[in-house]
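ok so for the tutorial part 2 we go from a plain amino acid sequence to predicted C-alpha cells. step 1 is just haveing the sequence, like this:
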Amino acid sequence: MRLLVATGPSGRPVVEDVPARELGGGRWQLLGSPGLARGAAAGDTLVVAGDGSFTVTGRGGNVAVQVSGPAGTEERLGELTERVKALGGLLDSRGATRDGRHTFSVYTVPATAGFPAIEEAFQAYTAAVPQGQWTYANVFDDDGRPLTWWAAD
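step 2 — the prediction. this is what the C-alpha cells look like for a chain of 153 residues:
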C-alpha cells in the first residue's frame, strides 16, 4: 500500500510503500510503521484515498519512532535496537541515504512501555551519537500538539 508523505517541490506527490493488510471497504491495517509518512504506526487501521492520503480510524497501541544518524554508528544502532526490544518493541526497517553518509531507522514500540522508558532508550542513542536524531512519528499533530490517542479508553 502507498501512503502520501508530502507534496514535493515540483508539485508531485511523494509516496511511501508500507506493509499492510487489506481489510476491505478501503480500510487497511499497517503491518509495519512508516519510515516517512507521519501520523500512523504498525497495527493502526487506516482509510486510504486514491492519492495515498489517509485517516487513522483505529489505533493499534504502538508508537512509531524515526531515527537518523551518521553512517558508521551501526554498533550504537544495535544497542538502541536491544533497548527497544527490552521494551517489547522492534526495528521495522533500516536504510541509508543514497550517498551512504546517513542512516535512517524506524522502530515500533508499544505505548504500554511508557513514554519515559521510550524516551530514555532513544536519548541514550543520541547521547552516544550526538549527530543522531529521533522523533515520534505518531504522537504529535502537525502543530506539535499531543494526539493523546494512548490515553483513550
